[in-house]
Every structure is written in structure tokens, then in C-alpha cells.
Amino acid sequence: MKAVSFIALFLAFFYIGKAQNQTDVTTLKNEVEKASNDSVKLEAFRRIYKYYEYTYPDSALYYLNKGHDFFRKRGYKRGIAFMLTMQAHVFETRGMDDWARKKYNDCLAMFAELNDAEGLAGAYNGLGMLEGKAGNFDTSTKYFHKALKLYER
């Protein structure tokens, strides 16, 4: 009897949690639509990415591509660069290292043009991770040192 009660309680929490998550993602999508400016919209896209990042990476990429297209049409380079960084991270976690490397390299020039030290550091850190996974430890260390110097500013 205790086992049946435990299973029933577990299932109840599972379905309540699932309903709550659906509400959360709907709220996040509404935030993107209602964002008052590009910075707020960027943060809303970032939150959707974080929501889907590990559980549904294809959905994360879908929304990152939507964000990339939106910011490209608006000419908002900071938004484009951050969309590329987040896309790179999704590719990296899925083992698609060549795609991740391309995205990280694409955003480096944008972050440099924007003089965005934090964005540059994040991209260099990502490249360092990729090089480390590939066994290129000298190159990896150089990227990590670049990232560290930028983070220390």
C-alpha cells in the first residue's frame, strides 16, 4: 500500500511540475514578443536558451536562430554576437565541435568591434574548451589565458 501511495504522489508531482514548466516556457515566449527594446529582447532569448539548453537543444537552437535573424534584421550586433555564442555552446555540448568553433570565431570579431571584454572572454573560453577536448593543450591554454586576462579587467 505504501508503494502505491508513493507512486501516486510521485506521479502527481511529475504532472504538476510538467504543467508548471509549460507555463514557464509560455511566459518566456511572451517576454520575447513583448520586449520593449533590443536589450530586453536579448535577455528574453537568453532565458529561453537557458530553459532548453540541455533538455531540448534543438528547441534552444530554434529560438537562437529566431533571435539571430531578428537581431540581424535590426542591425543589433551585440544581439547577433550573443546568439552566435549561445549557438556555439549548444553545438559544443552536442559534440559538434567544428560547428561550435565556427560560431565562436564568428562572434569574436563582433565582440572585438563592440569592445565587449566579457563577450570576447566567453568566446575565447569556449575555443579553449574545444581545443582541450581535441587534445591541443598548448592552443587551449593560450585561449584560456586570453579569456582570463579579459575577465580580470
What does this structure look like?
The model is unreliable at 8-22 (pLDDT under 50). 87% of the residues lie in helices and 0% in strands. The protein has 153 residues and is an all-alpha fold. Helix 3 packs antiparallel against helix 4 (77-93) and helix 6 runs antiparallel to helix 7 (137-151). The protein has helices at residues 2-34, 38-52, 57-74, 77-93, 97-114, 117-133, 137-151. The chain is built from 7 helices and no strands.
What brief labels describe this structure?
mainly alpha, 153 residues, globular, 0% strand, 87% helix
Q: Helices and strands: which structural class? A: mainly alpha
Q: What is the count of helical runs?
A: 7
Following the backbone from N to C, one meets helices and strands in this order, namely HHHHHHH
Oligomer: single chain
Helix content: over 70%
Strand content: under 5%
**What's the average pLDDT?**
87
Q: Stretches where pLDDT falls below 50 for ≥5 residues?
A: 8-22
**Cα shape:** globular
